[in-house]
Amino acid sequence: MHIYFKRSGGFMGIPLTADLDTTALPAEEADAIEQMLDEVNFFSLPSYPDLGGGSDRFTFELTVVNKETKHTVYFSEQNAPAEIDPLVRQLTLLARRPPESPASDGL
Q1: Is residue 9 part of a domain?
Q2: Residue 69 resides in a domain
Q3: Is residue 106 part of a domain?
Q4: Would you say residue 11 has pLDDT above 60?
Q5: Distances, alpha carbon 38 to alpha carbons 54, 57, 70, in Å
Q6: 57-91 pLDDT tens trace
Q7: I need a surface site. Which of 17, 88, 94, 104 has the fewest CB within 10 A?
Q8: Structural domain span for residue 6
Q9: Global pTM?
Q10: Distance between CA atoms of 12 and 20, rounded to whole angstroms?
């Protein structure tokens, strides 16, 4: 499963993104993300809900590609369903995680 996550807006306006392949994540982490997607019926969520207004608010773009299915949902922190909060928190943590450095070959 491939996941693209983008958070934009907010007070500082600094975007935060993650481009993830769940097969590259630890199995427990990948399973948790897939379970969260199932719990919110991600592929049934509307793509363009009313984002609402508000200065200094975050907006989110979340695209999930699973086999032959691709779905993108746009939402704001104001109109996000409560059930999606754990997924947003997990993806935000993954987006903040520093990239792994290449394996050292003893140099």
Answers
A1: yes
A2: yes
A3: no
A4: yes
A5: 29, 26, 14
A6: 888 999 999 988 999 999 888 888 788 999 999 99
A7: 104
A8: 2-96
A9: 0.82
A10: 24
The CB-based long-range contact list for 84-93 (8 Å cut-off, 24+ gap) reads 84/40, 86/36, 87/33, 87/36, 87/37, 87/40, 88/7, 88/60, 90/32, 90/33, 90/36, 91/3, 91/5, 91/18, 91/20, 91/33, 91/62, 92/5, 92/7, 92/16
pLDDT digits (tens, 9 = 90+) for 17-72: 999 999 999 999 999 999 999 999 999 998 876 666 566 788 899 999 998 899 99
Q: Quick one: which H or E segment has residue 35?
A: helix 27-39
Whether residue 105 is contained in a domain is answered as: no
Measure the CA–CA gap between 67 and 76, rounded to whole angstroms.
Answer: 27
Evaluate whether 42 touches 64 at the Cβ level (below 8 Å). yes
Containing H/E element for 60? strand 58-66
pLDDT at 106 over 70: no
